[in-house]
């Protein structure tokens, strides 16, 4: 930071001003607008701000925000950390995150899957963590196979980077193998509909439990160095540590394992890193509990089929659940993917349905044989549930609508 | 063609979920099963992955959408297997979507190359100059007695219909085959570009396929939710037909 050119200093100052103005005027947290201003003045600002820092990038379809928060918490043991904690995961957001933390020698950046190549080039990361790839926003996003190929190509150009990758996801494994140094994590893959075929040769993959391999070309699940066993994480030396996370679900224990693997690469011992993870309670509203009229609603964000499956795994037994579905631009306009999800895990509890596209969900649940009640909005859903706990699963804009009803709860 | 008037078990065959199962097309299977069970018909579902031989005794065969590579592979496997034309000769119904729809024709393009289809429908498909993505609506061939077609299309193909097939619908919103027509049918073989999934958005089209198998009219089901969904989707592509309060709701979207 001390070696920044006058132009980069000016760009940084303007970025901070723009971010603050945007924040106080109530237009989000200002990361995107700030970054845009800074990059306009100095197009190389992201690269300049990343220089002389140790950067970890985290990408994948699901879990990247949580894993980024876990990793930032773990690296907090070493000192201040620059991180895009508001989920602004494109270069504007990364630039702002770095500009706001000039004193931080470590940076943990959540990266949108489509921007991994650019971030590899500009931030020169020490570590890249790859979580998973699955179908998401089908009407506009690149399809899964193409995205894996894009990652693989990007990594091929950076053979020195240390990759930490999910051995349970064949797409991720194939992309990660573009570099020689990979640490494998048993990161789990509840959703397997996007990895029937071998990413290398296109033939059918064989699966035996979590093990998978291609009998045609030999692509095989690597043996993981990090894994989760019950509520314990096991490191490459066989050392175990008990996780006591505030966040629910197997998927978050897997995310924690990845965060711990990154932290280990940065030199944080397992015993110091694990307690840091317990401090993470909620992330930009995810897993937050909001209260109204005697109802305590826990908010779960699920943006795609894999995310909904993971969310079902987090539900407390017997607690009523509200499902909220929108299909605005950032959600993707196509709701067909709800038919890729089996909703039977919500059977046997009260199910409330709302959101712009509640009728899509109603038809879906009907053919899934699940009883439900359609309500006009989230407030009505809470009223329809008895006092006590309520689980809420919402996709992106539906989730943000609920958050804004509760002062943008974090 | 044979029908099964004393039908007790409906045999649904879902082809190649390992290759062609993006965009929620599995929903068509679920909708058919739901609507058959609602009429007291038992359902036997067979999912056939591409490494298996398919049965020829199915009543309705379903095949969905997918990427270019899997599409070409699926066409090769289907031609090598040879069972689908035999099933058609026995009177089976085929409902095909997007990539699967193109495969039913004589030829299609995948990864820049022309591939042979099964030739079960008199159609052939090319690449369009831009992707068709968004809501589609259209008037279904009046001979089928099914109300307005609604769904979501997401494809880069353009499909041309020969003299031995008919368009499924005339497009009033969206692109479909070529901006004018959408889908095709001939005998008991039907294809469409629509996801949504197509049969969830068009339950009476699902009933038409079922009635081709049973050979009789089906008793109506309570379609409150599918009707609400259809009205909302059709209003979204044609806001002029909206009542005033629905117009306000649209602004919020
Ligand atoms: Zn292979």
UniProtKB/TrEMBL annotation, chain A:
Pathway: Cell wall biogenesis; peptidoglycan biosynthesis. One of its GO terms (biological process) is cell wall organization. The keyword Cell membrane does not apply. Keywords: ATP-binding, Cell shape, Cell wall biogenesis/degradation, Ligase, Metal-binding, Nucleotide-binding, Peptidoglycan synthesis, Zinc. Residues 301-399 form the Lipid II isoglutaminyl synthase (glutamine-hydrolyzing) subunit MurT C-terminal domain. Residues 58-263 form the Mur ligase central domain. It is an enzyme of class 6 (ligase). It catalyses: beta-D-GlcNAc-(1->4)-Mur2Ac(oyl-L-Ala-gamma-D-O-P-Glu-L-Lys-D-Ala-D-Ala)-di-trans,octa-cis-undecaprenyl diphosphate + NH4(+) = beta-D-GlcNAc-(1->4)-Mur2Ac(oyl-L-Ala-D-isoglutaminyl-L-Lys-D-Ala-D-Ala)-di-trans,octa-cis-undecaprenyl diphosphate + phosphate + H(+); beta-D-GlcNAc-(1->4)-Mur2Ac(oyl-L-Ala-gamma-D-Glu-L-Lys-D-Ala-D-Ala)-di-trans,octa-cis-undecaprenyl diphosphate + ATP = beta-D-GlcNAc-(1->4)-Mur2Ac(oyl-L-Ala-gamma-D-O-P-Glu-L-Lys-D-Ala-D-Ala)-di-trans,octa-cis-undecaprenyl diphosphate + ADP; beta-D-GlcNAc-(1->4)-Mur2Ac(oyl-L-Ala-gamma-D-Glu-L-Lys-D-Ala-D-Ala)-di-trans,octa-cis-undecaprenyl diphosphate + L-glutamine + ATP + H2O = beta-D-GlcNAc-(1->4)-Mur2Ac(oyl-L-Ala-D-isoglutaminyl-L-Lys-D-Ala-D-Ala)-di-trans,octa-cis-undecaprenyl diphosphate + L-glutamate + ADP + phosphate + H(+). It comes from the Bacteria. The active site is at 334. Belongs to the MurCDEF family. MurT subfamily. The lipid II isoglutaminyl synthase complex catalyzes the formation of alpha-D-isoglutamine in the cell wall lipid II stem peptide. The MurT subunit catalyzes the ATP-dependent amidation of D-glutamate residue of lipid II, converting it to an isoglutamine residue. This is Lipid II isoglutaminyl synthase (glutamine-hydrolyzing) subunit MurT. It comes from Phytomonospora endophytica. The gene is murT.
UniProtKB/TrEMBL annotation, chain B:
Its EC number is 6.3.5.13, 3.5.1.2. The active site is at residues 98, 195. Pfam families: GATase_3. Pathway: Cell wall biogenesis; peptidoglycan biosynthesis. PROSITE patterns: GATASE_COBBQ (PS51274). Gene3D superfamilies: 3.40.50.880. GO terms for molecular function: carbon-nitrogen ligase activity on lipid II; glutaminase activity. Residues 12-202 form the CobB/CobQ-like glutamine amidotransferase domain. Keywords: Cell shape, Cell wall biogenesis/degradation, Glutamine amidotransferase, Hydrolase, Ligase, Peptidoglycan synthesis. GO terms for biological process: cell wall organization; cobalamin biosynthetic process; peptidoglycan biosynthetic process; regulation of cell shape. Substrate binds at residue 131. It catalyses: L-glutamine + H2O = L-glutamate + NH4(+); beta-D-GlcNAc-(1->4)-Mur2Ac(oyl-L-Ala-gamma-D-Glu-L-Lys-D-Ala-D-Ala)-di-trans,octa-cis-undecaprenyl diphosphate + L-glutamine + ATP + H2O = beta-D-GlcNAc-(1->4)-Mur2Ac(oyl-L-Ala-D-isoglutaminyl-L-Lys-D-Ala-D-Ala)-di-trans,octa-cis-undecaprenyl diphosphate + L-glutamate + ADP + phosphate + H(+). The lipid II isoglutaminyl synthase complex catalyzes the formation of alpha-D-isoglutamine in the cell wall lipid II stem peptide. The GatD subunit catalyzes the hydrolysis of glutamine to glutamate and ammonia. The resulting ammonia molecule is channeled to the active site of MurT. Forms a heterodimer with MurT. Belongs to the CobB/CobQ family. GatD subfamily. This is Lipid II isoglutaminyl synthase (glutamine-hydrolyzing) subunit GatD. The gene is gatD.
């Amino acid at each position: 930071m001390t070696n920044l050119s006058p132009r980069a200093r000016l760009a940084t100052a303007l970025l901070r001003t723009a971010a603050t103005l945007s924040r106080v005027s109530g237009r989000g947290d200002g990361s995107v607008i700030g970054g845009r201003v800074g990059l306009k003045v100095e197009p190389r600002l992201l690269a300049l701000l990343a220089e002389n820092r140790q950067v970890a990038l985290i990408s994948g379809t699901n879990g990247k925000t949580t894993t980024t928060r876990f990793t930032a918490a773990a690296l907090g043991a070493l000192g201040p950390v620059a991180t895009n904690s508001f989920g602004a995961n494109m270069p504007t957001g990364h630039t702002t995150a770095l500009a706001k933390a000039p004193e931080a020698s470590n940076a943990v950046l959540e990266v949108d899957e489509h921007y991994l190549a650019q971030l590899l080039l500009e931030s020169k990361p020490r570590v890249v963590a790859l979580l998973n790839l699955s179908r998401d926003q089908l009407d506009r996003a690149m399809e899964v196979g193409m995205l894996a190929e894009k990652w693989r190509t990007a990594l091929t150009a950076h053979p020195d980077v240390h990759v930490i990758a999910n051995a349970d996801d064949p797409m991720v494994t194939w992309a990660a193998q573009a570099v020689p140094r990979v640490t494998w994590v048993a990161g789990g893959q509840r959703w397997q509909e996007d990895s029937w075929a071998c990413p290398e040769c296109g033939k059918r993959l064989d699966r035996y439990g979590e093990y998978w391999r291609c009998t045609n070309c030999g692509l095989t699940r690597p043996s993981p160095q990090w894994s989760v066993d019950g509520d314990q994480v096991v490191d490459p030396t066989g050392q175990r540590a008990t996780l006591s996370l505030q966040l629910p679900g197997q998927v978050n224990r897997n995310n924690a394992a990845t965060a711990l693997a990154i932290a280990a690469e940065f030199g944080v011992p397992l015993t110091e890193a694990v307690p840091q993870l317990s401090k993470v309670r909620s992330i930009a509203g995810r897993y937050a509990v909001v209260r109204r009229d005697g109802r305590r609603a826990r908010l779960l964000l699920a943006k795609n089929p894999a995310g909904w499956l993971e969310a079902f795994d987090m539900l407390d037994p017997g607690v009523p659940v509200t499902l909220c579905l929108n299909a605005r631009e950032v959600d993707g306009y196509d709701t067909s993917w709800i038919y890729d999800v089996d909703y039977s895990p919500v059977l046997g509890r009260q199910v409330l349905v709302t959101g712009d596209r509640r009728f899509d969900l109603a038809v879906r649940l009907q053919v899934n044989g699940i009883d439900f009640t359609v309500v006009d909005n989230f407030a009505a859903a809470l009223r329809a549930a008895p006092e006590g706990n309520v689980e809420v699963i919402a996709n992106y804009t539906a989730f943000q609508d609920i958050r804004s009803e509760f002062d943008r709860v974090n | 063609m044979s029908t099964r008037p004393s039908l007790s078990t409906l045999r649904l065959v879902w082809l190649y979920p390992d290759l062609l199962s993006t965009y929620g097309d599995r929903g068509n299977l679920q909708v058919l099963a739901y609507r058959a069970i609602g009429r007291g018909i038992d359902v036997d579902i067979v999912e056939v992955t591409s490494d298996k031989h398919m049965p020829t005794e199915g009543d309705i065969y379903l095949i969905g959408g997918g990427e270019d590579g899997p599409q070409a592979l699926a066409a090769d496997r289907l031609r090598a297997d040879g069972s689908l034309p035999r099933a058609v000769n026995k009177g089976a119904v085929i409902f095909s979507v997007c990539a699967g729809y193109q495969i039913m024709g004589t030829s299609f393009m995948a990864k820049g190359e022309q591939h042979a289809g099964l030739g079960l429908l008199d159609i052939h498909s090319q690449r369009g100059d831009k992707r068709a993505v968004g809501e589609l609506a259209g008037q279904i061939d009046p001979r089928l007695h099914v109300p307005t077609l609604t769904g979501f299309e997401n494809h880069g193909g353009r499909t041309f219909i020969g003299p031995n097939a008919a368009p499924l619908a005339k497009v009033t919103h969206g692109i479909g085959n070529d901006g004018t027509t959408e889908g095709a049918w001939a005998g008991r073989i039907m294809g469409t570009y629509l996801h949504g999934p197509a049969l969830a958005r068009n339950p009476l089209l699902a009933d038409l396929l079922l009635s081709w198998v049973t050979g009789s009219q089906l008793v109506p089901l309570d379609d409150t939710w599918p009707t609400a969904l259809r009205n909302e989707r059709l209003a979204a592509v044609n806001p002029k037909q909206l009542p005033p309060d629905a117009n306000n709701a649209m602004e919020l979207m």
